[in-house]
Design goal:
The protein contains 3 helices and 19 strands. It has 364 residues and is mainly beta. The longest helix has 14 residues, at 26-39. Residues 1-15 have a biased composition (Basic residues).
Length: 364
């Protein structure tokens, strides 16, 4: 491998060793990519960029002599450092869902049963590259909304595209056909290329996204309410991606105006299994009220938590969130539900990700 100049990639956060990268020969790489390409011919894939266009065949140009670093932002302030200190990780501004092939101003919930479009922004260079053009594959996946999603068991691929990324920003457009109901998902994107490898992969996506600028994650859901109308229900999953049992928390916080500005009410239905775990953990928490039938009202959405929730090894439990409101408001309201617990790097209480719910209340 040719010597590289410029910023160096970080060492592995656990072992302290430099990442080891396995390079495929052109012949092997051609064979693998040909198989992938054949499986994806049914997808309509397009690229929108002033400098990039779709490739008919995967690039086979080999290894570059200069360092390459293509990245996606985890946070608006993210510059591609691995890791960084910005949060939350699960609201990437470089992933957007739109109902048409023309990019929309803000990401929207996908419309069930029809074609939607996912727009992914790739940036070149990051702090470890020089801006050289790199050809790689952008992959998009979906999962149930919630906290610590495990790679790969919790993720279903939506589509992928082979694309060259030059200096500047390149927007890739990937169609999403036959969106399944109820239409609420976490999305993750992965940039895979021979000259810009990921440093390592963790069991949970929260750690992988923090330590790989090739991975981005977006869990943002819109909640459209009618004042005095029916509740809107949103699915949520709490997950232990590790191989040992441990205790976790669900923490509720607010962005913008408080939910009570709209006379809002938020109730978590834990289901029988998770509710029993909460009882066994001493009904720990704050800013909450047990209303029976496995349900917990989040009385103070800006500073509430459900704590001491025991999860078995590799366990995933489902719950649901019910939103209602009584008053029309034009102020932006958002509620974050974030899972905290141990991670694979040894932290006892790490941010494992979650979902931001953007709430709008219209007149009846």
């Amino acid at each position: 491998m040719s010597a590289r100049t410029g910023p160096r990639r970080p060492r592995h956060p656990t072992t302290g060793r430099k990442p080891v990268t396995t390079r495929l020969t052109p012949r092997v790489r051609r064979s693998v990519l040909t198989l992938v390409t054949g499986a994806a011919t049914a997808l309509l894939l397009s690229v929108t960029s002033a400098t990039a266009a779709p490739l008919d065949q995967p690039d086979d140009s080999g290894i570059l002599a200069e360092p390459v670093d293509v990245y996606m932002k985890d946070h608006p302030s993210d510059s591609g450092m691995q890791p960084h200190s910005f949060g939350p990780l699960h609201e990437s501004p470089d992933i957007k869902v739109c109902p048409t092939a023309e990019e929309c101003a803000t990401s929207q919930n996908p419309i069930v049963g029809q074609r939607n479009y996912i727009f992914v922004t790739l940036r070149n260079p990051g702090p470890y590259g020089t801006g050289a053009t790199e050809t790689g594959r952008i992959e998009v996946y979906r999962s149930t909304p919630g906290g610590s999603a495990a790679w790969r068991s919790d993720w279903t691929q939506i589509g992928w595209m082979q694309v060259p990324v030059s200096a500047g920003s390149t927007t890739v457009t990937i169609p999403w056909d036959n969106v399944p109901g109820p239409g609420h998902f976490c999305l993750a994107t992965r940039w895979v290329s021979p000259n810009d490898p990921m440093t390592f992969e963790a069991p949970e996506i929260s750690v992988s996204a923090l330590h790989n600028n090739n991975i981005a994650w977006r869990n943002v859901d819109s909640v459209e309410l009618v004042a005095g109308g029916q509740a809107q229900i949103r699915p949520y999953s709490i997950r232990n991606a590790l191989t040992w049992a441990n205790r976790n928390s669900l923490v509720f916080s607010q962005v913008g105006a408080p939910l009570n500005t709209a006379g809002g009410r938020l109730v978590a239905d834990l289901g029988p299994t998770l509710y029993q775990r909460w009882l066994q953990g001493g009904k720990a928490g704050k800013g909450i009220r047990d209303v029976g039938r496995n349900q917990i009202e989040i009385v103070e959405p800006g500073q509430a938590s459900l704590d001491n929730l025991m999860l078995n090894a590799n366990e995933k439990l489902a719950l649901s969130l019910s939103f209602t409101a009584t008053t029309v408001t034009k102020e932006p309201i958002a509620v974050r539900v974030t899972q905290f617990g141990p991670n694979s790097l040894g932290a006892e209480r790490a941010d494992l990700g979650g979902v931001r719910y953007d709430v709008k209340v219209a007149a009846r």
